[in-house]
Amino acid sequence: MRSNVSIPTYSLRERSSCGVEILRADHTNAGEPTAHAAHRDEHYVLIFQEKGRSHIMVDFEQIVVQDAAILSILPGQVHQSLAAEKDTIAWFIALDVSWMDETFRAVFQNAPRQRDPIGITPTDILQLQVCITALQQVYESNADTPFHEHTLRSLTAACISLFAAAYQEPVQAGDRKDARKEIITRQFRSLLQQQFKTMKSPSQYAAALNISPAWLNEVVKEATGFPVSHWIHQEIILEARRMLYYTDNTVKEIAHLLGYEDHTYFTRLFSKLTGLSPVQFRQKYRK
Predict the structure, then answer these.
(1) No. of H helices and E strands in the chain?
(2) Which of 143, 167, 191 is the C-terminal boundary of a domain?
(3) What are residue 47's DSSP bridge partners?
(4) Is residue 2 assigned to a domain?
(5) Model confidence over 183-224: pLDDT tens digits?
(6) Among the four residues 82, 122, 148, 255, which has the most C-beta atoms within 10 Å?
(7) Distance, CA of 153 to CA of 139 (rounded, Å)
């Protein structure tokens, strides 16, 4: 059922008294499960599929996870599990944002194709099985035991590190001189995800980062292949598409929620960037 207000957003605090939750899905003796409703989370979700084949939708892209692989879902991404074939076994680690180190956060957020499953080696599989199994045992044990939270955090950090290592592309020695540019690009992308509803111009982001608009644009374009304005528009249009598909808000209401007082300007921008008007997009993708 679609909402007239917003896309359902789930909080980890509703299910777990700490900052992590561990779930194991075993479809060995089951057929295809019923699809879960589309939603977004305030937290990270790291998925480790030991074997099998499953289907998940992330921001309008249907993803097939085949055999042993890992996948990350970022806070705010609209997603839903569609189906898992028989003999599929997968682990799900839900993590509060505060439990994700900034270094690892950047790895997941800035991965070239963040939504793609990452195939893993037999060694990776074994390490993840050992680490996640230990994490689950501590998670389900008595929370009153000495150093329980410390152990839980340490094992969680180890699991995150194994996921991040699979996502992280090797850094060539000659690239280290561009570390400052990488940091600026990462800071811009992080700020954009937080402020795209209120900050619409490259100059606003440059001012927030204490650099010139020209320098920010040069750095971001060199790192990503696209200028700052492209990424601002992409973030806005992605959220607009989510709202058009998953809610029944009017175009005028969506424009207002995205920070546009003039909904006609928003409609022109959306049409220019997608080739469809907001109404046409909703009609096409809801069929």
Answers:
(1) 10, 10
(2) 167
(3) 71, 92
(4) no
(5) 888 889 889 988 999 999 999 999 999 999 999 999 999 888
(6) 255
(7) 10
